[in-house]
């Protein structure tokens, strides 16, 4: 693809984990990667400069939100989302469809597109694959997502699930036809098919035949059991070509990231790290800490010992702020600054987790990294989640045996 | 500028009047205020006003990188709340360890850059009036868990523990716009007088040479507080215990200069909450050296970008001025532009022409308009960065006018006169939605703050949107 190159740097000889370099129109990105979600062209109070300093080189914007505000006309006038937000690195946008289905309960889907009522004035609106492409072309994202027919994976309606999967393939064809800038923007397909592995495989084959520069696994991150989630990811990665990036949509819990990397996925996004920051939660290698708890009121340690983010890094170091848990506690839910600081920390944590995984893959010690990760997170092996133990066993890592 | 190391040994504050007013005591002057390990403050100048130890919307890294602000006003009432379940706990800030990077507890608890000079007072600026009032030995303060009593002893002990660069002794203030009757005013002066006597007797035996006391001058007439002020001049000036004055009403400065010339060399910090730059200039001409400016925060929250310069542009009808003006009639320019207005939706201009702040050099009006419209917190962050930059530039302009040679005396007054004509007398109101009122500070102020904002747009099923909506829960 003229707008994307993918270079495989290393593979884990035990699992399916890969380290690679994805080069997009706004620069190179190391995979595996976590992509923070700057929903409305802003990452929750962080300046683009602060986001850049976390090492982030690819973040998300949401097409649905940008379509509402600032709207397509403004995006065209300003010259796209990069210019709008002063972000010179890469942007990935979703199709807008998922947000409509999840935010607007009354949206309904026909062959034409997704119908919904405008949140502005209640007038009926229609998001078609063509309209989604047009919006994403105006946004100018480096990676665009096809409009897909999203159904909760737990839906028992097999016929509807098949319809959604097949319609998503048809909509990909319409997206490809409507995409105006294939030389500067990449369109990724999205594999659907619920929890039915055969349907997922069938969808993979159909989608691969369209030869998009990257491939996403969609429809997960909902209410499905983690076992099922892992089976779907594993079933898809097994069929996917080596030399294309694989994006599992809507995934963000650290355990999900680490297991999905082991299953051969490269890219992830989720609002959870930034949203949970606004509720006063810090993600750490030992789990999540709620800074609003009284126990942190007089805790003068960093948010996480050993963390390299600008909040936590040792105070003597250049650029360190010297933020204590006590200060975050003091202002959690009271001053926006506390939310900004936790957002900074959480985004750093997620990006660094993927940097560490990548380094481990390159240095041929990924299984040890995975074991160390779970060892930090749980008090003992008996408390490891079964789904993770099983999924990792399936790709050659036995968490329980040493 | 570099951090002042000359004073490192003594720890004493230095205030140097570089250019005194020719006309005598109560007039504009140029100076430099320096504290050990802080950036020296060229005066006239201003300090930012913190809320709960933070400059609103600005993380400490953004403060270091993008603000020139050399001082921060802090209120003890922001740190001493007693949560119901932990009513007996020691306020955590008293126990913060200091570090090599943050050499006072106030700095290390708030992670405020070490270069920034701190001022500690009992009350926020502006303070919420307490229904309970003060007593002979305490002031009533408003914390996030409600009103509580702060004894003058406890406050003094907090000052010794936190070691701010500048401490304001307790003052018996009403924090009400209504002028107190003469009986009340007299009691204010008497109480403040007694408290200040206690303050200096306690502080003198402590080992805190780093704390400089700026004694409050009450917003009541000089004739009512002359005894108190005379005591300051006669008892505490010769002993060097008194380092400066905290002025709650700048109009007292002429009386002060006339009756108490000994106090003239002291730095004067205005806590009078000037509502506009016009008021700031007026207070400068009365001899104020340093301001704490709460309006910067409210202006940013209102979606406004300050758009004035000092001295004002010489040709008032230049394109750059009319650009930021809502009308093209050539009248006075607005003091701020309202970024919520749709006119900015596609504007790739900086907030104001020639501004070198981070917001103006890295972003444009269209983005900030979008952020405000989407209620993204970054909008207020960028406005804070810009508004602080405009204030820094404003004061730099004031200083450079004052610094011009004696032959040009009168230039400053002339520039002030032109400024009055060049700009509208008041800030625009700002049509945008404010950030969600952060916690408690606004609750008792008229109660209108919460209703100012319309509810978030609703889902089709009628429930309020709770998705990614750019707000933290209050
Ligand atoms: Zn951290
Ligand atoms: Zn600016």
UniProtKB/TrEMBL annotation, chain B:
InterPro entries: QTRTD1, Queuine_tRNA-ribosyltrfase, TGT-like_sf, tRNA_ribo_trans-like. Keywords: Cytoplasm, Metal-binding, tRNA processing, Zinc. GO terms for molecular function: metal ion binding; tRNA-guanosine(34) queuine transglycosylase activity. GO terms for cellular component: cytoplasm. It is found in: Cytoplasm. Residues 460-474 have a biased composition (Basic and acidic residues). Zn(2+) binds at residues 355, 357, 360, 386. Binds 1 zinc ion per subunit. PANTHER family: QUEUINE TRNA-RIBOSYLTRANSFERASE ACCESSORY SUBUNIT 2. Non-catalytic subunit of the queuine tRNA-ribosyltransferase (TGT) that catalyzes the base-exchange of a guanine (G) residue with queuine (Q) at position 34 (anticodon wobble position) in tRNAs with GU(N) anticodons (tRNA-Asp, -Asn, -His and -Tyr), resulting in the hypermodified nucleoside queuosine (7-(((4,5-cis-dihydroxy-2-cyclopenten-1-yl)amino)methyl)-7-deazaguanosine). Heterodimer of a catalytic subunit and an accessory subunit. This is Queuine tRNA-ribosyltransferase accessory subunit 2. The lineage of its organism: Eukaryota, Fungi, Dikarya, Ascomycota, Pezizomycotina.
